[in-house]
């Protein structure tokens, strides 16, 4: 049974605690509320004003800690978006309501006798700090910011509402919330458990959000800030949210030698962390190392131009299923266990395997299993190439299968620009010039729409075109973005 304190509380009672800083930890999301959420909050205020009764506005979860000069730190685990918006709404009211301005600011927005955080009660994440401080100090802020945008939105709604500001201020006293307070005392429940419980009931967070909070939430502010800036923010800059989650999934496949489903990334990471007795810094350092590898693969900008070429081909085929194996190879090269020549040799085999599977229209659902097996390098007994060939042997399309497929398969209609890729690869092996895949165009020698000249010159032209028009023998590559006259 975990130890916590939970109850309902009036908003003003919550904000009115003296010498209290509501700190949004560095690893939390930036302030992201948009117009729909602010509209709803202001609508709640109008409802509270009209009905003159308490109105529930949600929950806030925080970890308590002691600060300097007998201050209290509330580190917000959940509810930071709403709390920031309520502060902005109060600030908007105070800037219009001259009668209550001093009371609002001194009681609920600032700590008059506490220098920390520029006397402000709310401490946002770094991304929002400059904009928030500008708003709270009545200064201009010219960069795009949800903080400024929503503050201005509230000011306009207050002015347009037709309700005097003292009334709106009093109506905010009807806002009621639920608070869940945790402490950092040994033996108390890890705040992450509470956070996960909240997430399971509808808070929309990605696997990367959950992993970030898992690694940083239990640390003190100083360590949180250090590890966040030293590792996490650098990792985050590499990826969009979806790519980040996919990186974590591929990382875990490489590490655990097991298939990891997309909806199990966070649970798998937690288990991996605990099984290997990791600490937050070691875990983040390792994630950062592999995130750099992953980013290089996504953008085809490793130190090796030859490997970059292979990566471009793999990415065109949308065959990132092979990434866990490539991550392992890149780490081995970094550790001088293999050199670039060996890595490229191994990567070429995999590239050929993936291409042949697609051209020969063989099932690709077994590739995951092969990749998982290849990531267990200990079983390779130091001979990676022999191990790779052994794992691929039963499903590797041979030259005869490939030749027959190239003669018969309508490559032009295959997914992932397979015809263009085949022609680009042929061209790359004929010349040293770099082929720009995006600018290259596939053209038909016998055109897709035949005119009478073609029908006169070629017997059964329509039948031949139907059978062979999309095969590699009838396709060519041009670098001109224009129609070729037939």
> How do the helices and strands follow one another from N- to C-terminus?
EHEHEEHHEHHHEHHHHHHHHHHHHHEHHE
What is the strand tally? 8
Radius of gyration: 30 Å
Note the main sheet. Answer: 6 strands, mixed
Uncertain regions: pLDDT < 50 for 5+ in a row? Answer: none
Write out the strand line-up for the largest beta sheet, numbering strands in chain order. 1-6-3-4-2-5
What structural category arises from helix and sheet content?
alpha/beta
Measured distance between first and last alpha carbons: 79 Å
Mean pLDDT: 87
Q: Give the tally of structural domains.
A: 4
Task: Please estimate the helix content.
Answer: 40-55%
Strand content: 5-15%
Q: Can you count the helices?
A: 22
The geometry reads as elongated
Describe this protein's structure.
By secondary structure, this protein is of the alpha/beta class. The protein has helices at 11-15, 35-51, 80-96, 101-109, 126-136, 146-161, 165-171, 191-200, 207-216, 221-236, 241-256, 265-275, 280-299, 305-316, 323-334, 340-359, 367-374, 384-392, 399-408, 418-430, 452-457, 461-468, and strands at residues 5-10, 20-23, 55-66, 72-78, 122-123, 175-183, 441-444, 475-478. Strands 1-6-3-4-2-5 form a six-stranded mixed beta sheet. The longest helix is centred in the middle third of the chain and has 20 residues, at 280-299. The protein has four domains: 5-204, no CATH class; 205-288, no CATH class; 300-409, no CATH class; 410-478, no CATH class. Strand 3 and strand 4 form a beta hairpin. The termini are far apart.
């Amino acid at each position: 049974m975990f130890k916590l304190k939970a109850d309902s509380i009036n908003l003003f009672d919550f904000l009115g605690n003296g010498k209290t800083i509501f700190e949004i930890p560095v690893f939390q999301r930036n302030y992201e509320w948009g117009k729909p959420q602010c509209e709803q909050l202001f609508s709640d205020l109008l409802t509270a004003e009209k009905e003159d009764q308490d109105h529930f506005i949600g929950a806030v979860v925080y970890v308590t800690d002691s600060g300097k000069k007998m201050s209290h730190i509330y580190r917000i685990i959940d509810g930071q978006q709403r709390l920031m918006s309520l502060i902005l709404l109060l600030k908007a009211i105070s800037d219009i309501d001259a009668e209550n301005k001093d009371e609002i600011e001194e009681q609920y927005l600032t700590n008059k006798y506490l220098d920390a955080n520029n006397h402000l009660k709310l401490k946002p994440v770094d991304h929002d700090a400059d904009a928030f401080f500008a708003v709270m100090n009545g200064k201009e802020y010219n960069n795009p910011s949800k903080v400024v945008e929503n503050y201005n939105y509230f000011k306009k709604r207050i002015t347009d509402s037709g309700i005097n500001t003292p009334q709106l201020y009093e109506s905010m006293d009807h806002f009621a919330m639920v608070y869940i307070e945790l402490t950092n005392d040994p033996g108390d429940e890890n705040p992450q458990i509470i956070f996960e419980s909240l997430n399971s009931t509808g808070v929309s967070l990605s696997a990367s959000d959950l992993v970030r909070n898992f690694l940083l939430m239990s640390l003190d502010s100083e360590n949180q800030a250090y590890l966040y800036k030293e590792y996490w923010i650098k990792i985050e800059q590499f990826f969009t949210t979806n790519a980040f989650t996919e990186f974590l999934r591929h990382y875990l496949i490489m590490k655990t030698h097991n298939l990891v489903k997309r909806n199990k990334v966070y649970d798998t990471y937690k288990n991996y962390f605990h099984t290997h007795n990791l600490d937050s810094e070691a875990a983040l350092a390792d994630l950062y190392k592999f995130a750099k590898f992953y980013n290089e693969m996504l953008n085809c900008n490793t130190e090796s131009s030859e490997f970059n070429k292979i990566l471009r081909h793999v990415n065109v085929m949308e065959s990132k299923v092979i990434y866990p194996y490539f991550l392992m190879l890149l780490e081995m090269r970094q550790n001088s266990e293999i050199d670039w020549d060996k890595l490229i040799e191994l990567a070429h085999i995999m590239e050929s395997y993936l291409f042949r599977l697609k051209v020969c229209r063989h099932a690709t659902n077994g590739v995951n299993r092969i990749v998982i097996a290849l990531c267990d390098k200990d079983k390779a007994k130091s001979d990676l190439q022999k191990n790779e060939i052994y794992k691929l042997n039963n499903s590797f399309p041979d030259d005869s299968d490939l030749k027959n497929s190239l003669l018969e398969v309508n490559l032009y209609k295959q997914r992932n620009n397979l015809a263009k890729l085949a022609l680009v690869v042929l061209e790359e092996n004929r010349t040293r010039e770099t082929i720009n895949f995006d600018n290259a165009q596939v053209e038909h020698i016998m055109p897709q729409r035949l005119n009478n000249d073609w029908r006169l010159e070629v017997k059964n032209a329509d039948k031949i075109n139907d059978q062979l028009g999309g095969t590699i023998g009838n396709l060519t590559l041009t670098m001109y973005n224009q129609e070729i006259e037939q």
